[in-house]
Amino acid sequence: MAFQTPPTIFILLSLLTTTTTTTTTSPYLSPTTLPQNYQNMLSTFKIFIYTPNKPFTFQTPPSSNFYKFLLNSNFVTQDPEEAHLFFLPFSQPTSTRALGRLVKDVRTQLPYWNRTLGADHFFISSTGIDHSSDRNVVELKKNAVQISTFPTTSENFIPHKDVSLPPFNPDPLTLPHVPGNDTTTFLGYLKWDGQTEPALVNELKGDVDFMIESELLDHVEGVGSIRKRSSTSFSFSGSRKSKFCLFFYSGDVARMVELMGSGCVPVVIVDRPIQDLPLMDVLRWSEMGLVIGTRGGGRGLKRVLLGVGEERYEKMRELCVEASRHLVWNAEPQPMDAFHMVMYQLWLRRHTIRYARRNWV
């Protein structure tokens, strides 16, 4: 059964319009056009799905969530002539040779790939497609829209073409975070995997303004004391007591969304520009979080955080809370949640030039 668009979508769209017209700052890149464009997507967007060689499903979320929701959505059409985009499903992992054969079969058996050389096609690859000399794989990587999980290896992700899926959280946090009150005692909170950037982490451990949670030590350090904790979960009390939540780009970012929803401003620690943040075409990430390198060490990181004024910080926190609802994977799709906003990014990529049919080999 296909998912129906709930009546509440019109209420949400009304709230979105009201919010973005009465404030000077919005979490959206295009706050005035998003409501109408989103509604147009719901009513017109159509996707044709190729039949896979054999039934399969993706094993891990969020890829499995997106695939399941897409198959049961009203976006799917059985008429390829009315489709805006074409979905190419294949199981993973798939070898480069197998991918080449798959694309070759599609181009020789049906006319749709050759009309755009794959530019109106998209596929799911959790880790992204690497470079290849195979002509068919080259077209897949360069032209088709890739949907991958965040974070994605930089060489496997092409900005402005590809889309990353918001992280999946099985138990999103719902408790509010109120910076500036008596419970906000730390400048930064970090869960450390015990491997990434140990020098920086060791430096932050010696600073009473940071709470560090370590998977190796099974305790939380901060303010000169040790707090016992579960080794399998975040210290939500620690994040709620902190203004900023720190994440290593290559580490565990799955909790970023729910901590944003609790009002903890995200700080991504990485030594290069990143362009695969979820919903990059929708959200103003530069107004909601910070990207900081490791070259300045703990002192440099702290200097940047302390340089964020209270007015700016409060606005960042508010935007994080407002934007977080668009990054949540619900048990079933809800208006403007992670599934629908990923679909919206695909809809923005629907304009491609279609050439007359040619015989390609």
UniProtKB/TrEMBL annotation:
Topology relative to the membrane:
Single-pass type II membrane protein
Which residues does UniProt call coiled coil?
Answer: none
Q: Where in the cell is it found?
A: Golgi apparatus membrane
Instruction: Kindly state one GO CC term assigned in the UniProt record.
Output: Golgi membrane
| Signal peptide (from-to) | 1-21
* Residue ranges of every copy of the Exostosin GT47 domain listed in the record: 43-292
* The keyword Signal belongs to this UniProt entry's keyword annotation: yes
Bilayer-crossing regions: none
Gene Ontology molecular-function annotations: glycosyltransferase activity
The entry's keywords? Glycosyltransferase, Golgi apparatus, Signal, Signal-anchor, Transferase, Transmembrane
UniProt similarity note = Belongs to the glycosyltransferase 47 family.
What's the name of the protein?
Glycosyltransferase
The species this protein belongs to is Lithospermum erythrorhizon
Query: Lineage of this protein's species?
Result: Eukaryota, Viridiplantae, Streptophyta, Embryophyta, Tracheophyta
